[in-house]
Amino acid sequence: MVKKRGRAAAKPVPAPAADSSLLAISQLFAAEFPGVVFQRRRDAQGAITYPYLSPSLPRLLGVAAPALSVNREGELDVIHWADRQGHAAAVQRSAETLEPCFESFRAIGAEGKVVWLEGTSIPRPAEAGAVVWDGILIDVSERVHAEQRLETILANAADCLIAIDDEGRIEMVNDAAAALFGYPAQDMLGRNISMLMPEPHRSAHDGYLRRFQARGTSDIVANRRPRELVGLRKDGSTFPFELAVNEVKIEGRRFFIGSGRDITARKETEAALRDSEERLRGITDNIPGIVFRRVQDPSGDSRYSYVSDGLRDLLNVEPEAILSGRTHFRDLLSPEQRRMPPLALPPETAGAVGQTVDQELHFRTPDGLERWLQTISRPRRLEGGEVVWDGVALDITARKEAERRLSYLAYHDPLTGAANRALFLDRFQAASRLAQDLGETLNVLSLGIDGFAFINTTLGHRVGDQLLKAIARRMQNLVGRADTVARVGGDRFLVLLTGVTGERQVSEMVERLWRGLREPLPVEGQEFELACSIGVAVFPRDGADAETLIKNADSALGAAKEEGSGGIHVFTAELGQRGSRKLTLQNRLRRAIDAHELVAHYQPQLDLATGQMVGLEALVRWTPAEGPVSPVEFIPVAEEFGLIDAISDVMLFAVARQLRAWRGQGLPVVPVAVNISGRQFHNPRRLIQTLEQVLGESGLPSSLIELELTESSAMRDPKQASAVIAQLAEMGLKCAIDDFGTGYSSLAVLKRFPIRKLKVDRSFVIDIDHDANDAAIVQAVIAMAHALNLVVVAEGVETESHLRFLRGLGCDQMQGYLFSKPLPADEMAKLLIEGRRLSLPE
Fold first, then answer.
1. Which residues, at least 6 apart from 617, have a Cβ–Cβ distance to it below 8 Å?
2. In sequence order, which ranges of 737-792 are alpha helices (DSSP H)?
3. Where in the sequence is the domain holding 38, given as residue range(s)?
4. pLDDT (tens digit, 9 = 90+) per residue, 117-145?
5. Segment 237-244 long-range contacts (CB within 8 Å, at least 24 positions apart)
6. Rounded to a whole number, what is the distance in angstroms from the first to the last CA of the chain?
7. Which of 149, 169, 594, 781 has the most other CB atoms within 10 Å of its CB?
8. Please, are residues 292 and 309 in contact by the beta-carbon 8 Å criterion?
9. Rounded to the nearest 5°, which phi and psi values hold at 585?
10. Model pTM score
11. Which of 539, 571, 603 lies at the terminal end of a domain, its last residue?
């Protein structure tokens, strides 16, 4: 419970009339000005009154003007109680120094509405020792809310936590921090935090501590922004480290909570985002603005009677240049916007008020600077027929750049800058309409780089990314200006050829592209000679819409790859027949489900600390009379044709029956994990009914069945996923995230999932002992999982080298052919009886 100190009821304090300067302000800023104009007066005895508050403040807060009373402390009653002391202190400082007062506080309006106001007031001495402030306030609620959301995201994104007291001694450390710095947690407690810092950071910290002890304030806490430091591990190695520190008081003692993370693996990403973060920081720290009054006389001529100094800051133009008419605002606009008609009001009666005008204007200053300003003003017609616009202009350059970037990313591949699938579809739509009108054809090419995965594996993803960029540039140079090159994933590209008629021309263009990509490509000091395979589909012969043509071009690409590296294949009706074979497979699979041909094989999961078997994963197998069918072949078909739910049900009931049988035989059973499909997971009512039936019929304790959900399925709808996992937890069922690292998890989302373990995808494990990128990913996943108190299971462990590496990273469990392949139930029973353990290296 938060207790607040009571205060005496506010009593109205008589306010003197506004002085002549206020009257001048009133005339300059009319009641329709979108901000708030005010005058504050402090007499020699310290009593504060507000002689003038513009009518816009009551309208902004939704209260009547009489409600804006002043309490005994000289604060407006509408100011939030938590902000009054700070505001009063700012006013006091300004009164003593006659420096401008930065006004920033929350105001409480009608029905508890909270409005954030910011502005500046200028003090001046008045008669009898009084001080008078003339000021302006602007509603900045939207910006403040954005800042608060950003702070919440940053606060929740830390991987490790360390708390120190005011002497610099470590009071608390979490597992992630201990793992990151290489110390047992107990060895860190009570020692000075400088043990984790190399020079010169250690000396800098000692200086911070001395200054804090001398004056009671801390620079790093006052700054409240994460800092990039260098961390020192127990083994003497260093690493880049991002740290944010907050101060808390517990039982009268001051503590500093540091949240940080190893940023070695994200340096490239951070560099790419630095410009955006700097723009955002500039906006949140200081919103520049221009206050102006524009007057249009009855003849239509316009002039500015007032422009604030913000003009100089934003556009490098002196206000006097605008006021004198030497420089015109329209001359500063970009050529496109200079052609826009000037604002004007139609002839109306005097006193008429127009609608608020909100414009986004593009300026180019004399020194070449480009800037976007958002102007908000409201026109008003005066008695003499003049039209007056009182308004404010805010800098939105950073926002416009971000919008441009987002718009670009919506239609372009972020890695190569080539078109993405969305832009490809848009351009096909336009090109196909024109081709139909002209009776021409279009050609859709699906292109894949042969052996690209091997390049990624052997040389690393950084080289692979640079190679993809070079490939995209060369492809764009090889095709026509009106043609489109799009990257749609991995090493796969789509090409739309327009204006190419006749089979010979098409063949020559495809051949040119194919040969051009075989020319050596210089990347990272090496030259790569690549081979590519190309599939071709023709509009309208092979399809009337983009999706059909892409599908058929993909089929042709598949045929080209089957024929060997570096082939070209044009779609034919025979390739379309492959689709019918897929239909045949799904019909066979449907019958196999009904005939109980699908069985469960079991692969052990081992504890890497003891070598003991601690669980099994049930994997579906299909061995019809015609010969075994790989899950790689039939699972995608099952997902495509909606059979995956039925397969998941088969596995759940089969596992329950087998566990009951093993228990009846007295075998030492362990929990068995069953994979749940994304479709099944996103139909929670059916899933829970099935699980209740499985547990009810088998009589098994829910602790013996574990459910595995792929990361991509969980992140499709995180809110629903969290709710479903919570329901399953209430039933006593534990959940794990499978194939972790292949989806797009957010730490802020993941920590809300009541899961038990994460399974690292085998694609990261298979090369962990010689691929630094994979090793860094697995290390980060393990550290993150341990910070969330999750068990980490590594899949695909096949070699002793894998085992040693994973144990060195602190991985909890493993699963893979190093210990056992997936076994039928009878062979698995023998393994359970034998009680064989994993042989752990010394």
1. 602, 603, 605, 672, 673, 675, 708, 815, 822
2. 747-750, 762-765, 772-787
3. 20-140
4. 999 999 999 998 999 999 999 988 888 88
5. 238/198, 239/264, 240/264, 240/267, 244/154, 244/155, 244/158
6. 55
7. 781
8. no
9. -65, -40
10. 0.39
11. 571
